[in-house]
């Protein structure tokens, strides 16, 4: 006897609610009972829509990534060059309202580095998501290897600055360092 089919609209609604929960509560709280209670459903409902806890977790990672890619992709398409793209990216990522999302992002990043087989999709996409956009804003006249090198420097520097900001909360010091980097572009 086959079970009832998954309502994909309802699954998407649940996934958004679970992702919001993960952003506020953290990575370690993604277990059936707390998640079910937080989003107002039963654990069985979550199992029906996601299968396993691992599948739910992977769906949350994908949704978080989609949110970040959409937001940064839209932002980067409206910038005239690499310096403007880097500045827009820094301003958006360092906004205190984004702190919970990026805390979760860095928690997942750290976990992915410890278990690369389990998080291979995340690791494959974590740089490529921004790399293409940052290479593109440099224009067609920039050698692709040079564009990739510059984009890598921007990605690594912004992520490092953001990690420092989230770890220390030293807004002025980190923003001064970010400003020095952005002016060098």
Automatic annotation (TrEMBL):
PROSITE patterns: HTH_TETR_2 (PS50977). The keyword Transcription applies. PANTHER family: HTH-TYPE TRANSCRIPTIONAL REGULATOR BETI (PTHR30055:SF234), HTH-TYPE TRANSCRIPTIONAL REGULATOR RUTR (PTHR30055). InterPro entries: Homeodomain-like_sf, HTH-type_TetR-like_transc_reg, HTH_TetR. The lineage of its organism: Bacteria, Bacillati, Actinomycetota, Actinomycetes, Mycobacteriales. Keywords: DNA-binding, Transcription, Transcription regulation. Coiled coil: none annotated. Residues 31-50 bind DNA. It comes from Mycolicibacterium vanbaalenii. It comes from the Bacteria. Pfam families: TetR_N. One of its GO terms (molecular function) is DNA-binding transcription factor activity. Gene3D superfamilies: Tetracycline Repressor, domain 2 (1.10.357.10). Residues 8-68 form the HTH tetR-type domain. This is Nucleoid occlusion factor SlmA.
């Amino acid at each position: 006897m086959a079970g009832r089919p998954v309502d994909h609209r309802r699954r998407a609604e649940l996934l958004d609610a679970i992702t919001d929960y993960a952003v506020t509560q953290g990575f370690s709280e993604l277990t059936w009972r707390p998640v079910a209670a937080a989003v107002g459903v039963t654990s069985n409902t979550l199992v029906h829509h996601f299968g396993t806890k691992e599948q739910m977790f992977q769906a949350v990672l994908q949704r978080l990534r989609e949110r970040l890619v959409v937001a940064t992709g839209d932002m980067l398409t409206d910038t005239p060059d690499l310096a403007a793209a880097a500045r827009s990216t820094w301003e958006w990522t360092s906004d205190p309202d984004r702190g919970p999302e990026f805390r979760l992002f860095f928690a997942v990043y750290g976990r992915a580095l410890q278990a690369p087989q389990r998080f291979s999709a995340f690791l494959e996409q974590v740089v490529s998501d921004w790399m293409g956009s940052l290479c593109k804003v440099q224009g067609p006249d920039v050698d692709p290897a040079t564009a990739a090198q510059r984009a890598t420097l921007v990605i690594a520097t912004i992520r490092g600055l953001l990690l420092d900001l989230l770890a220390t909360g030293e807004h002025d010091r980190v923003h001064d360092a970010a400003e020095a980097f952005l002016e060098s572009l």
